[in-house]
Amino acid sequence: MQPFAIAPSILSADFARLGEEVDKVLAAGADIVHFDVMDNHYVPNLTIGPMVCAALRKYGITAPIDAHLMVKPVDRIIGDFIEAGASYITFHPEASEHIDRSLQLIRDGGAKAGLVFNPATPLDVLRYVMDKVDMILLMSVNPGFGGQKFIPGTLDKLREARSLIDASGYDIRLEIDGGVNVKNIREIAAAGADTFVAGSAIFNAPDYRQVIDAMRAELALASA
Ligand SMILES: O=C(CO)[C@H](O)[C@H](O)COP(=O)(O)O
Questions:
Q1: Which residues are marked as active site?
Q2: Looking at ligand 1, which atom is closest to the CA of residue 204?
Q3: 215 with 185: CB under 8 angstroms?
Q4: How far is 96 from 75, CA to CA, in rounded Å?
Q5: Is the CB of 141 within 6 Å of ligand 1?
Q6: Ligand 1: does its nearest atom lie under 6 Å from the Cβ of 66?
Q7: Could you tell me the residue range of the domain that residue 138 belongs to?
Q8: C-alpha to C-alpha distances, 12 to 62, 177, 196, nearest whole angstrom
Q9: Tens-digit pLDDT profile for the chain (224 aa)?
Q10: CA 56 – CA 20 distance, rounded (Å)
Q11: How far is CA 111 from CA 22, 62, 74, 88, 151, in A?
Q12: Is 9 a pocket residue for ligand 1 (Cβ < 6 Å)?
């Protein structure tokens, strides 16, 4: 299992001050920058693209950037995110014409590759590509918007994904995204997640460090 990592979703950050916001949340103890890319086609919302990712690198952000592509089709944008400095690039299997090829494109470009599963999307395809993924991201809300409630059925799916990862012997991150907060993070960790995306729980709080510290305290209890 990978060490626990907290990945604030910048979807809930102040976009007018994005560089400062990312600096601030990293200084507050975040490990990974979760970068939500929405195309108003695969999901009913529109956010940011590779130019903003490149701008964060130019601004001086060196932490891993985890680009979650909620776009369809995916292949033609993968190269742009690699050039922009994304560390992880994840996509939804139903948004790719050729899942194996999309994963390979990401790894060939030097980034880490991942698959994202919506709450009602089965994990079946994983059995064919377990050796080609560095991250599995389970959505615990339907994608498109921050600030939604965690869907409790995702806990069973996390256990299923954790068993698949452990049985595979590969070193794959298991990330959870949607409705994660201080109150539920311990239960989510106990179900098998090691990487926790949290948008509104962190960016809507007055003190980012206080929330991240509280999350880490809960995670320490989960592994005790
Ligand atoms: O991918 C997403 C939505 O599609 C967001 O990352 C996610 O919902 C995080 O926001 P919050 O923590 O507020 O639920």
A1: 36, 177
A2: 13
A3: yes
A4: 7
A5: yes
A6: no
A7: 5-223
A8: 20, 13, 15
A9: 889 999 999 999 999 999 999 999 999 999 999 999 999 999 999 999 999 999 999 999 999 999 999 999 999 999 999 999 999 999 999 999 999 999 999 999 999 999 999 999 999 999 999 999 999 999 999 999 999 999 999 999 999 999 999 999 999 999 999 999 999 999 999 999 999 999 999 999 999 999 999 999 999 999 87
A10: 10
A11: 21, 14, 15, 6, 30
A12: yes
Q: How many domains does the chain have?
A: 1
Report pTM: 0.97
CATH number at residue 139: 3.20.20.70
In this prediction, the answer to ipTM > 0.95 reads yes
Task: Name the DSSP letter for residue 9.
Answer: B
| Ligand 1 contact, 144 CB (< 6 A) | yes
Distance CA 98, CA 100 (A): 6
- Whether the link from the prior residue into 73 is cis, omega within 30° of 0, is yes
Q: Which of 200, 212, 118, 134 is nearest to 168 (CA)?
A: 134
* Residue 199 labelled as part of a binding site: yes
Cα(176) to centroid(ligand 1), Å: 10
Residue 210 has which token pair?
């206080």
